[in-house]
Amino acid sequence: MTYRLKLFLVLGSLVVLSNGVIAAANYRLSNRLIRAEIHRKARAIATTVAVLIDPAEVAVIDSRGAESLPEYARLLATLRAVRDANRREDVWVDRIFTLFGAAQDPKVVEYGVDSEQSFEFARHPGDIYQRDDRPVEIGLAGIDRLAQNLSDFQAGYNNAFAPVHDQSGRLIAEIGVTLKPAPASTLTQIGAAMFAPFAVTVLLAIALALYLSHSVSRPLYSLRASIEHGHANCLTLEMASVAYWYQTMPSKPFPPLPNPEERIPLPEIDVRDAHRWRDAWRKAQGGGFRWGNEKGE
């Protein structure tokens, strides 16, 4: 694995990991806030139903035999009408039901009227209200207390509740509303909405990582070395240097090297040779004190 590839993988992984963590945190926060807002919508529906219905009709539905009463039929029609009116693309009410305290034990909660139309899922008056296959044994007051205190769905479920009081103010029932994800719900759109900027950021990071990996590992295109000819270049001498190039990455073809005869180094000279050469050069220039770096006259 080349250095460029390693650098690209490290930079790309860091960007993807950091952006992924930030996107996941934002998604969790947005999801929690939106669920709280949906829960408020469900509670508004439950509260509206609690105001519309007649508490006296709710009070008489306290056993399985109540299904034959006209009050049951009127209340069932009202719940189904509200349910159908709130089945839209932005919100989808699955069912609306009433709960009342069991006569044998007020802590046990039983179903009253359920708007569900499927026979296998419909609840009847007197059926025990359960969660996770266990009866809910906190009574109507406990359900109402949780419904008032929670900002999310009731006890972690997609339910919202509103109380029903009689004329004396006594709590006689709870209206429950169950929601399901709607086709155009914000919950189904938030993932795609957050994925778009995440993908753009990752693409920009990949482009930057490619540029940086290319910049820091690109071949040395030119080598400039300055060799001083005496102090402050006061001598005119023939100097030579050797540079070694080790190429490991693919590159463009290099120009051909000179023939071996052309690459034979000149004989080595010492200080005495340099002085003899300079003295001969001075005589050729007419004598005088010359260093060899004079400009042409």
Overview of the molecule:
With 297 residues, the chain is of the alpha+beta class. The chain has 2 domains: 3-187, Beta-Lactamase, CATH 3.30.450; 231-284, no CATH class. The chain has 6 helices and 6 strands, in the order αααββββαββαα. The chain has helices at 3-52, 55-60, 70-85, 139-149, 186-217, 271-284, and strands spanning 92-101, 109-114, 130-131, 134-135, 159-165, 171-180. The strands form 2 sheets. Strands 2-1-6-5 form a 4-stranded antiparallel sheet, sandwiched between helices. Strands 3-4 form a two-stranded antiparallel sheet. Helix 1 runs antiparallel to helix 5 (186-217). It starts with a helix and ends in a 13-residue tail after the last helix.
Number of domains: 2
Our Rg estimate from Cα atoms comes to 44 Å
Described by the principal axes of the CA atoms, the overall outline is rod-shaped
β-sheet strand percentage = 5-15%
Mean of residue pLDDT values: 79
**CATH architecture field of the largest domain:** 2-Layer Sandwich
Task: Give a quick account of the main beta sheet: strands, pairing sense, barrel closure.
Answer: 4 strands, antiparallel
Per DSSP E runs of 2 or more residues, the count of β-strands stands at: 6
CATH topology of the largest domain: Beta-Lactamase
Structural class: alpha+beta
The first-level CATH class of the largest domain is given as Alpha Beta
> In sequence order, what are the helices and strands, one letter per element?
HHHEEEEHEEHH
- Helical content stands at 40-55%
Query: Between the first and last Cα atoms, what is the distance in angstroms?
Result: 60 Å
Strand order of the largest sheet: 2-1-6-5
